[in-house]
Amino acid sequence: MYLKRTPLAALVLAALMLAAGCTLWRVLVPASPSGAPASDVSVPEVTPERRKAALFYSDLGPETVDASSYPAERKRDYEVYARVCSRCHTLARSINAPYVSRGWWEFYVARMRVRAKFHGKPLTKSEVKAVLDFLEYDSNERKVAHAAEFDATKAVLKRRFEAALDERIEGLQKQTQPRLIP
Length: 182
Ligand code: HEC
Known about the structure:
It contains 7 helices and no strands. It has helices at residues 7-28, 48-53, 72-84, 92-95, 102-118, 125-144, 147-174.
């Protein structure tokens, strides 16, 4: 045979097998459950008040969007969104929410519309359109086009939310308990 069983051939074969094994490992085993290393993103910490009040993990993330590179119309939509969607909770709830498609946003905004109506401050048709146009555009920019980064941010926020819940439960457990058995 042309390829003799020399130590060099064995070494080359071993190296090739190792490289193939590494590639297979990388393909089959994701870096983290969300597919992106969470340590790569830094998400600014929130105030203790916000930690205490959080109802969703999204509440514990950034409250603003950098819309400086967005088209002029979407910048105007952002102003409307920032005004009407921060009345009852911070913008963080929608900015860091996992929803991305216009259909999902229509569903949630319809829900918020009902709530706003009950609060005596109904949203107008043009406000709803501006909010949906903004959410659709912004979701594509930040959540779809930069999916790995957004997934990593969500992973950080989920851990933060779990820790915040643990803190709240600990606080409740420290309170004096009513005696059930006299
Ligand atoms: C009148 C008060 C009010 C206004 C205004 C309001 N929200 Fe909400 N929102 C709530 C309440 C209360 C909840 C929690 C209960 C729920 O999910 O319905 C909530 C929850 C949410 C959630 C989390 C839903 C989930 O289940 O994950 C999102 C996202 C959201 N709001 C986005 C928005 C957006 C976008 C706007 C602007 C159109 C908005 N909110 C305006 C009261 C409001």
